[in-house]
Design brief:
Pfam families: Baculo_FP_2nd (PF25298). It comes from Paramuricea clavata. The protein is mainly α. It folds into three domains: about 90 residues; about 70 residues, no CATH class; about 60 residues. The chain has five helices and six strands; from the N terminus they run αβαβαβαβββα. The strands form two sheets. Strands 2-1-3 form a three-stranded antiparallel β-sheet, covered by helices on one side. Strands 4-5-6 form a three-stranded antiparallel β-sheet, covered by helices on one side. The protein is rod-shaped, with a radius of gyration of 44 Å.
Length: about 230
């Protein structure tokens, strides 16, 4: 019996470090389990938060798209309204012509101004055929040096008088932009007829291009560049 007790005592002493290590491992496992449970809880919370955030982002994306669509609709309506307003303004100017190239002068009546093509003014005609005939005759002034005419010399700003249609500010800007293109690529002709602006390369071609809006010019320039 004494030997058995001694053996048990020896085993107990030998196994004591093992038991201590096992206890330490068990403690570590408990800590790891606690940490894993904590991390698992946090992970679940993060997943829920991420889900909620994604739902909010999806909602905001839909709202943003709706707002963008509304903005586009409003922009298109505004552009359309501006276009219609410009067309109406140009229509109201259909019987008007502008005479430029001369100094303003209070000595002339409107009738004298029209008859003599003197100081710059917007002239409104009461008869369309008279207006059209007067406008067609503007070509007779092309290339003429009017400074040699003693009756009009003192009223001139430059050397000649220019007669044009009375365009809206929007169409005048468009005319200027088209004229820049014409000069850059050395096209010869630019003119307007009933508010619509035209250009033509030279006398040899019958092809002409018409413009009512800046979009027309942009499309023409794209087409022109594509042709090289």
């Amino acid at each position: 019996m004494a030997e058995i007790a001694q053996i048990e005592e020896v085993l107990k002493k030998e196994l004591a470090p093992v038991h201590a290590k096992l206890a330490a491992v068990e403690g570590n496992l408990k800590q790891m389990t606690t940490s894993l449970e904590f991390l698992s809880t946090k992970y679940d919370q993060l997943l829920e938060h991420s889900k909620t955030t994604n739902e909010k982002i999806t909602g905001l994306t839909k709202t943003t798209r709706t707002i963008q669509a509304d903005i586009k609709i409003n922009r298109d309506m505004t552009l359309e309204a501006k276009g219609e307003s410009d067309e109406l303004a140009q229509y109201l100017r259909r019987d008007c012509l502008e005479i430029s190239g001369v100094k303003p002068n209070a000595e002339y009546s409107s009738e004298a101004i029209v008859e003599n093509a003197l100081p710059k003014i917007i002239v409104k005609f009461t008869r369309r055929n008279v207006r059209n005939k007067f406008y067609a005759e503007r070509k007779t002034l092309a290339g003429k040096n009017l400074k040699d005419n003693p009756h009009v010399r003192k009223f001139l700003v430059g050397d000649s008088i220019y007669i044009s249609e009375s365009l809206t500010p929007r169409r005048k800007k468009l005319y200027g932009d088209i004229n820049k293109f014409r000069k850059k690529f050395k096209w010869k002709f630019i003119w307007s007829h009933n508010g619509r602006i035209y250009i033509k390369k030279n006398e040899a071609t019958t092809e002409r291009y018409a413009f009512d809006t800046a979009d027309d010019l942009a499309k023409f320039q794209q087409h022109f560049q594509a042709l090289g």
